[in-house]
Fold:
Amino acid sequence: MRAMSQHAESQHPGPSHHDGATTSGPSAGLRLMHVHAHPDDESSKGAATTARYVAEGAEVHVVTCTGGERGSILNPRMDRPDVLENMSEVRRQEMERARDILGIHQEWLGFVDSGWPDGDPKPPLPEGCFGLVPLEEAVEALVRIVRRVRPHVMTTYDERGGYPHPDHVRCHEVSVAAFEAAADPTRFPDAGEAWQVAKLYYHHSFNRERMQSLHDATLAHGLESPWADRLKEWVPEPEWDARVTTKVPCGEYFGVRDQALLAHATQIDPDGHWFAIPREVQQKTWPTEDYELVTSHVDAPVPEDDLFAGVRAGAPRASVG
Ligand SMILES: [Zn+2]
Structure:
């Protein structure tokens, strides 16, 4: 089932494409781990936050649960037979480019994309895919990585998966379970020394309030909004939006985010909704990426504007094990 060994970390000498990237800086010595379902998710969710922390000297690790083998081609320019035939290799190369642009360390959890179940009723998931792998097997693989990397902070999707792809829901389940299990020396004792990650977050960048603000600002600039139809159907969910605890200012890194997105050429249409709103409008209207602090083992009162709040030097640290 595994596409590759869970031990095989991508060989990456470190950030090289960022003038701002450095091993010193206000976030030096801090480690952040994002767990994502597919290659491209690290660039569409939290990528500007990533770029900011990398520029400030933090180590940012991305664990990608699947190879994205069953992703459709969403960019008409890339919808070619030679690309379709080599989807896993193409997506691996795209991920390498995005990795270098973001200045991250990236590795694969080693499972196979479940694909988007199209139809009503939905067809069963394909045999052997990530959505069907026993939870404990995936959790152990992630615990092994968490105990080796020793991140201070982890992010994943909310319980709805952020969007209802079976791999995103599974990514949530695996991440939450691994966050707990990594700290418990009685769980997976052969998977390394226990490590307590100090904080766990869910991404909340796609809330309605943000989309409405961007939509309004786009219209105010006399431009066409890509979100008109979506907003009409999207019933306001004030309780859901109120779950946001943490807004990380990262507007000046939206350009890096966009470059990383474009590196996933099969998945991102340069003429599509991602780039329909001018960057300056986004930076002015909503210059943060937003998160929900779900669990904290450090003193970190919310609201806050920093994923490492309570973890930085001088703050009480979470103990190991
Ligand atoms: Zn995805």
Residues 37-38, 41, 165, 168 surround zinc ion (CB under 6 Å). The longest strand covers residues 288-296. The domain at 31-205+288-296 is CATH 3.40.50.10320 (Rossmann fold). The beta strands are 31-36, 59-66, 105-111, 153-156, 199-203, 246-249, 288-296.
